[in-house]
Amino acid sequence: MRDFMSITKALSDENRVRALLALRQRELCVCQIIELLNLAPSTVSKHMAILKQARLVEGQKSGRWIYYHLADGGAPSEVREAIEWVFNHLSSDSRIRNDAERLNGILKRNPVDICKQQRDK
To answer: What domains sit in the chain, N to C, each tagged with a CATH number?
Structure first.
């Protein structure tokens, strides 16, 4: 029951779902997620912590940066099923398609420049 509640809580926020979908095919630096969602760094960090607590994503620190990726194949079945459910039902959503287009532009930029720009704000 605890895992189920963590997963449903994590999926109950549109920005967390958007972040989850952005990680579909790649690992992203938290700066790139901040840029995509256009939210404050502390807000994105909180969202990612909730996704991580639900075991939907995994994060690893590398120097000053934190990189996130989807839970791997070793994740519990309820986690894998929840991720699959989200992808199956929202991949064609217009907001998600817009996010994918924006993310393509973000990925063309150097992550160091994105992080520096956010720190300078």
So the answer is: 2-119 (1.10.10.10)
